[in-house]
Amino acid sequence: MTTVLQTLLDIARDCPLAFSVAALDAAVRSSVVTVDQMRSFSEAHPVRTGTRKIVKVLENVDARRESVAESICAVRFVEHSIPGFEPQVDIRDGGGKHLGRTDFANRRAKVIAEFDGAGKYHLDGADPQLTFERERRREYALRNEGWLVFRVRWSDLFSADLFLRIGESVRRRLVVDDSRREA
């Protein structure tokens, strides 16, 4: 027998970063444990190997992520050294009108990453076509406010291509932003 805390820290020590973060995110999001409880337990029960890996996992846990896919996406940002992405960001237009909540946003670069799971088009018996149309209008409104929107699919989570493009877009937009501030 083992405790929930021990099991979660075993996962953090023994499994790949993306899987570990997804499992711990889910545990924290569902209020099974807190990150502080996991840190305290880890400190009180040191392991012979894997301590740095556990620390890295705990540094990347965030209960705001709403799915396994979002947790994996967040880890990919870290692995590709893409800074500044926050989960579940509310975006408003210049007049304060709420345009939507995004899965991830880098506010400074005005870059959004949305996980495109097909499930949302069928939630609660919703009409998929109507849901798709609402999503399309929301994305147009975000783009009209100067946001660059990337759609992330499951297959993108296991390939570097999209994350390299996102990282380059963030870097370019930050350079432009910095040059405007200097002017």
TrEMBL record:
<dbReference type="InterPro" id="IPR011335">
    <property type="entry name" value="Restrct_endonuc-II-like"/>
</dbReference>
<protein>
    <recommendedName>
        <fullName>DUF559 domain-containing protein</fullName>
    </recommendedName>
</protein>
